[in-house]
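Practice record 12: protein with L-homoserine.
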Amino acid sequence: MINVGIIGFGTVGTGTAKILINNRAVIRERTGIDINLKKIADLDIKKDRGIKLKKGVLTTDAHAVIDDPEIDVIVELVGGTTIARDLVLMALRAGKHVVTANKALLATYGSEIFRTAAKHKVRVGFEAAVAGGIPIIKVVREGLVANRIKAVYGIVNGTTNYILTKMTEEKAEFAEVLKEAQKLGYAEADPTYDIDGIDSAHKLAILATLAYGSSFSIKDVYVEGISKISPMDIDFARELGYKLKLLAIAKETDGKVELRVHPTMVPEDYMISKVDGVYNAVYVEGDAVGSTLYYGRGAGDMPTGSAVVSDIADIARGIVSGSTEPFAPGAVSPKPKSLMKMDDVISMYFFRFSALDRPGVLSTISGILGKYNISIISVIQKGSHRGKAVPLVVLTHLAREKDVTSALREINRLPVVEGKAVCIRVEGRDGA
Ligand code: NDP
Ligand code: HSE
């Protein structure tokens, strides 16, 4: 029998406990190993979590879980990068295997944690840290190990996808939908991590580390969130044949890796643009396998619990078979890939200007774009109010980020343009 202790009995802790208890026989049948949930620590052990636990399982003392000599696997589901880091390091140093869903922790202190695990010959499982219930860690680390990964990108945050979907389909208010996502247990303790793209960036750093054998951290990822997305841009996207999604993108070009998270317009006929609600999808392109896509629930108690338990089962198999193979993100490449500067990224772009409806304005704007080698695919002007500001939308061919930044700086200064231009990157085929 393998004994497990959970620290943090919140959304994911509850899902994990339910699966370990309710599916204990199923897991035993499928793995041949009996996995016993021995202890659970949380600050509040009075709250009804909807599970019947044996007497003595609950404790308010996380150390009582780590120090229990019969517990083989510690599951950290507290979140954050302070207490969680201490608990994880303490558990590893005590020779316990660790399973965590904490992407913030791994994207910030991953190197230290995996080094400590290797030193103490124990494993760290983190399947739940990226894309909830989708087993994407196993896919990238094991299933596609034969491939040079050209690109890994997708929707990896359930909360923001839920918000964007409700804003698109039901014209719902941002703040209202965020509250719903929090109630459903999708959002981070601090939801600005979701909204500002930081959670997606944490996940991207983990995926890119696995895919490219270099140790990437949150600091390496360019991040923009969804807070500035307006219903007007969602409508323009639809009119142009796109959907607005928060994408996390890693791509390799000539040994350089670009890592970026930002709202992105995705062609409506792409599968990823049909991924709605709390669902996530990750596209992985390998040189041998070609294009692959993985889809499932990206947040919530049970989907995330499913991923946590898969790591517990893997570790249990390792304990039973005596395998000491490390469970780290993969060997560090002898030729680590370098990071591409954001200035060098090439993309198509959507711009929305608030420009005066007056002769010569369009040609002034297009003249500046032309000066910076930015070629236009289409232009839409909404409404007509002579002499007043109207939305002017421009879709471009592939352009370099540095040129776009320079052109927008110049356009934003024009007296015929009000406020700052909205700039959204566009994925998909360049209509050239
Ligand atoms: P919750 O806030 O629901 O759960 C965390 C729990 O840990 C709370 O009950 C909290 O108590 C408790 N806690 C805090 N400090 C301690 C401590 N010192 N000892 C014991 N318990 C403590 O968070 P989630 O379950 O949503 O998230 C947990 C982790 O999983 C995070 O890293 C998150 O990023 C990750 N994750 C979450 C997903 C989701 O869908 N929710 C999906 C994938 C990953 P209190 O509330 O009193 O502070
Ligand atoms: N807050 C995260 C999300 C939880 O919404 O995707 C899953 O990692």
